[in-house]
Amino acid sequence: MSESQGANVAMGSSDATTKPAKGGPSRGLLIGGLVALVVIAGVILVTSKSDAPRLGTAVECAASGINCTIGDIGPGGGKVFSLGGATAPATCSGSCLEVAPKTWGDVKDPKLDWTTASTSAAGYGTSTATAGSWRLPTQVELDALATSSQVADLANAFGFVDSSSYYWSSTASSAYDKTTAETTLTAYARSRAGTGSGQIRQTYEWYARPIHPF
């Protein structure tokens, strides 16, 4: 390092006024330069860290529901997904929900009619999210969950049994047929892969998965 370079590095340090010996910088100047470099490097490191997006940790998310990353275990024991339809890797902020594990029923992802599915979802509970705080997802929530699940690793993480079979939402409707004078009760359902969706008779049996807002 030349004499002029050493002076530039050490500027502002307590050793900046030390006169170097002929032919090279003094020891004090070298030490001052090293200190300055360390300080500068430290500032750069801190700035870089603070500017970077903070992704949640599984422990933090499960404990308090804070800084959850999509696919984390949530505070109720389910897998976190984003109402905005974001996919991993991403942080779910302000619109976090969790979906119950596929083993929430007596069998993996039970096939139920809509009424039974609604009742069973409301009756599901965990030690950290009791019964009554879980329910079937709305149409919007089910679509968001399916969107998150388009990513291969999340399809496994969310544990859908079948990508092409339908899953129930809580969004119900009815249709009156003037010819038969009958009213047909329906509810929105869709497949995880998005290959089919629509209002389906509530008497049909399809898969169901409770969700838990937090």
Q: What would you note in describing this structure?
A:
- The protein has six helices and eight strands; from the N terminus they run αααβββαααβββββ.
- The chain has 214 residues and is an alpha+beta fold.
- The protein has two domains: 49 residues, no CATH class; 156 residues, Mannose-Binding Protein A, Chain A (Roll), CATH 3.10.100.
- β5 and β6 form a beta hairpin.
- α1 crosses α2.
- The radius of gyration is 29 Å and the shape is globular.
- The termini are far apart.
Set out the fold topology:
Blueprint: H1 3-10, H2 27-51, H3 58-64, E1 79-82, E2 96-99, E3 111-112, H4 114-123, H5 139-148, H6 152-158, E4 166-177, E5 182-191, E6 197-201, E7 206-207, E8 211-213
N-to-C span: 58 Å
Overall pLDDT, averaged?
73
Order of strands in the sheet with most strands: 1-2-8
Listing every helix as H and every strand as E from the N terminus to the C terminus, the arrangement reads HHHEEEHHHEEEEE
The biggest beta sheet reads: 3 strands, antiparallel
> What is the count of distinct domains?
2
| Radius of gyration based on Cα positions | 29 Å
How would the global form be characterised?
globular
Helix/strand-derived category reads alpha+beta
Q: What's the number of helices?
A: 6
Helix content range of the residues, please? Answer: 25-40%
Strand residue percentage:
15-25%
At the first level of CATH, what is the class of the largest domain? Alpha Beta
CATH 2nd-level architecture of the largest domain: Roll
Q: Which fold name fills CATH's third level, the topology of the largest domain?
A: Mannose-Binding Protein A, Chain A
Annotation, overall tally of beta strands: 8
Low-confidence stretches: 2-21, 29-56
